[in-house]
Amino acid sequence: MRVKDDSMTENIPILKFLIFIIDWAKINVVSEIFEQSNVRFHFICKGKGTASSEILDVLGIGSTEKAVVFCLEQDIMVPALLKEVAKKLGLHNPGAGIAFTIPLSGINNPILKVFKESINKNLDRYQEKETEKMSGDMKFDLIVIVVNQGYSDELMSVAREAGATGGTVINARGMAHQGPVKFFGISVQNEKEIITILAKREKKSPIMQAVSQAYGITSPAAGIVFSLPVENITGLDLR
Buried b / exposed e across 167-178, counting CB within 10 Å, b at 16+? Predict the structure, then answer.
């Protein structure tokens, strides 16, 4: 008879994938907060806001250049981290930036081990943070659209007509094992744009359908559209 090893299951951390979208000029502030908070893994890439010039003037934003920051953190530490970032960057003010989390469905063992060892060393601290947990009601979704380069402005016009309030564009490069990537016999170029749109759940389907019809996989844009549930929204008013 096999005996269950409880040591393999105790103190397994629940991890969240945090995404911050802020002005590029404020990236040092976030990096300092991460260092002070002992955030172990974070990555930064440059993006571009998609709001129109009229909206930018209303929000008082002089540039659409954005920093998109990805990091991993334990679920029980997320509220305190978001609270600190919101305080330092003023995320409750219009146009200051947004932050949200995405639950993970899996991660490789070495990274999980790092977080598990941290819990064992700081058990009292994490038990205190347990009381600060945020609600994870998942009323929002992150729509992710991958298209050939040069279509983001037109695509966002269609998305806005369907209910989107704005988005962020990240330049990327598609990779294939060998030769050009093809879908339905259509060659897809390597240079890509990744457009992310944070939307209320009831607006998700209309936005995705409109984008798919105009810029789907069989169009010249060769768009791929999918969505992810998000939690702990900070710094965004989507009423």
Answer: bbbbeeebeeee
CA diameter of the chain: 70
Question: Kind of pairing, strands 41-49 and 140-148?
Answer: unpaired
Q: Any idea which residue has 């600190």 for tokens?
A: 84
- Which two three-digit tokens encode residue 115? 């977080």
User: pLDDT (tens digit, 9 = 90+) per residue, 176-187?
Assistant: 545 555 544 545
Q: List all residues 6 or more positions away from 43 whose beta carbon is below 8 Å from its beta carbon.
A: 69, 70, 71
Q: Which domains does the chain have, with CATH numbers?
A: 6-132 (3.30.70.120), 140-234 (3.30.70.120)
Give the DSSP letter of residue 218.
T
**Alpha-carbon distances of 176 from 141, 210, 218, rounded to whole Å:** 28, 28, 18
**What pLDDT does 189 receive?**
55
User: What does DSSP say about strands 65-74 and 15-23: parallel, antiparallel, or unpaired?
Assistant: antiparallel
Query: Residue 177 forms beta bridges with which residues?
Result: none
The string of pLDDT tens digits covering residues 159-169 is: 999 999 888 99
CA pair distance 138, 200, nearest whole angstrom: 9
Distance from C-alpha of 61 to C-alpha of 191, rounded to nearest angstrom:
28
Neighbours of 126 (CB within 10 A): 17
Q: Residue 83 class from Cβ within 10 Å (0-12 exposed, 13-18 middle, 19+ buried)?
A: middle
